[in-house]
Design goal:
two-stranded antiparallel ribbon, 12 helices, 48% helix, globular
Length: 310
């Protein structure tokens, strides 16, 4: 099965009451852990590449690793998606370079500029058989080159105008999620604005909605990182039951990155602490890969509900 777009994935997810996991990839072990979990769970998957990942691993290496995953996991649909493309040029480069889906993120721009560039990206992408995600509202937090101190919720009153003017295929909205591993302050109660999600869904019936910044930051992983020499005080994420509730509605794609980073870091730190003589990267990257696989399997079954939907 070649790389696919997200069109059919989202249509099935919308009507099936589940969401497709969009997991960020940066190296071979991450690609393997994610796709092996999805193959075993018979789940569709979106592999996301950020601008930072392209700078770190090189576009060509990432493309070839994903192509290898498509061969090794022939029973599941795999989409390759640009995460947070911040310019027409970057989106175009990924479209020309083999991605099946791109995101243009103009959420920090004035509304009319966001509309203008999103439409340019959508027009070019559609002419090349590629689908487009855009964003309204802004998430706080830090993820690669994406950084915002203030959170601004999506205004449901403008979503229909934005989609009609741009022609984008899915829309990321801000309802209280945020980037990174420190989503809430200590003592602050995590909450999502389901009222905004419901109003957006009413104004855009059967239109795929996306949630960014949706890692749950499992406290057992945080504890393991800290136990073995890490320093991650007060790392807090989105409760998984809230994400499952969102997946039952119009949310068709949920982005998860920090949880994978946590799983890898916890596994590597534990291995070094328990096996201080090891210096072969295969010795500690093997358990790291398994930690990614275990984390993704849990998300597919218990959070996203997309297991068995391939």
């Amino acid at each position: 099965m070649p790389l696919v777009s997200t069109t059919e994935m989202f249509k099935k997810a919308y009507h099936g009451g589940y969401a497709v996991g969009a997991f960020n990839v940066n190296n071979m072990e991450i690609v393997q852990g994610i796709t092996e979990a999805c193959q075993e769970q018979k789940a569709p998957v979106i592999l996301q590449v950020s601008k930072g990942a392209r700078a770190y691993a090189n576009h060509t290496y990432l493309i070839k690793m994903v192509e290898a995953a498509v061969i090794e996991c022939p029973d599941i649909p795999i989409a390759l998606h640009l995460d947070h493309g911040n310019s027409f040029e970057l989106c175009k480069d990924c479209i020309d370079g083999g991605f099946s889906s791109v995101m243009f993120d103009g959420s920090a721009m004035p509304y009319e500029e966001n509309v203008k560039i999103a439409k340019m990206v959508a027009d070019y992408a559609h002419a090349h058989g590629v689908v487009v995600e855009a964003e309204l509202g802004q998430l706080a937090g830090v993820e690669d080159d994406v950084c915002a101190e203030e959170h601004s919720y999506t205004d449901p009153a403008v979503v229909q105008d934005f989609v009609e003017k741009t022609g984008v295929d899915s829309l990321a909205i801000a309802i209280g999620t945020s980037h990174g591993a420190y989503k809430f302050k200590p003592g602050q109660k995590p909450q999502l604005r389901f009222d905004i999600l419901e109003e957006v869904s009413r104004r855009l019936p059967e239109f795929p909605i996306v949630l960014h910044g949706s890692s749950s930051v499992p406290q057992d992983m945080v504890a393991k990182v800290n136990k073995y020499g890490g320093a991650m005080p007060d790392a807090i994420g989105i409760p998984e039951e809230m994400l499952r509730e969102a997946a039952k509605g119009a949310v068709c794609k949920i982005n998860i990155d920090s949880d994978i980073r946590l799983a890898i870091t916890a596994a590597v730190r534990e291995h070094f602490a328990l096996h201080p003589a090891d210096f072969d990267p295969r010795q500690y990257l093997k358990p790291a890969r398994q930690a990614v696989k275990d984390m993704v399997s849990h998300k597919l079954v218990d959070v996203l509900g997309c297991n068995g939907k391939a």
